[in-house]
Specification:
This protein is an alpha/beta fold. It has twelve helices and 13 strands.
Length: about 325
Amino acid sequence: MKSIRKSYFIVFILIVFILILSCGKKEKLYTIGLSQFSSILAADDAAKGIKDALTEAGYIDGENCKIDHKNAQGDFATVQSIAQKFVTDKVDIIITVTTPCLQVTAHINKTIPHVFGAVTDPFRMGIAEDTDHHQMNITGIATFEPVDEIIELIVKVLPETKNIGVIWNTSEACSEANLEVMRKSVELRNLTLKEITVTNSNEVLMAAQGLAGKGVDVIFISGDNTALLAIDTIIGVGKENSIPVVTNDPTYVEKGVLFGLGADFYTVGKETGKLAIRVIKGEKPADIPIQKLIPKKLWLNNKVANDLNILFPEEILEEADKVIE
């Protein structure tokens, strides 16, 4: 009888010991590496949409997951460091916002599941042949800016336009894609495109002044992260020289852009987050087609138009999602 009681006692002690160890051991949080290139409004909106989608699905940062959100502040070398750190840390999934982050991360990471958003054209970077055939560990959302529609709007709002100026960084695949469309679009309308390239945002002031010196009628910034980082500078040069500035990001209309037609990147971010959730729940990126999504919105700035003696046609005012007076 004593031996039986002793055996029960030993088993009891072992159970208590195991329970104590279990309680003391912290469960590893699911880690999400979120990388964005810079704090341009589109990237910030997309990142917020991603986080909101995760939260709404029950993935709470610090509770049942860890979101390691890194911002490269417009520096390509930092993008590379961030991607390398995510790979070294063996995060469970990588989510990238903007084309530069996709470009760099796709090259460095070949195994960790990777979902991208706020990207113009992933098909020209070697990661995808088409929506169904792409790098095995990657899927995401492609949002090609409505470049030709902006040119058409320029012609309608500014019918005297002959020369359109553009500032862009040749290192950004998104800008290169947009420029190809832009060149064809202006040629079809017998317009002239005057281009100045930059390598970083510090060169944007001189580039904008250069376009003013070339006598452009309007400056069009089309999804270039480097130029958008210095959009206030471009708007300032435009104001000094009575040159309207237009973009493919409507949110910059509040900063002094004449009009903006482009995607609602918060919505793009939420859909990117939903794709990431599918991967988190077990779907393989290779089995998820790349989606094309352009939730367009048109914003106009009537105050800037009045300052420049520009009158928006009634049909365009009726089409606008927002008019700033």
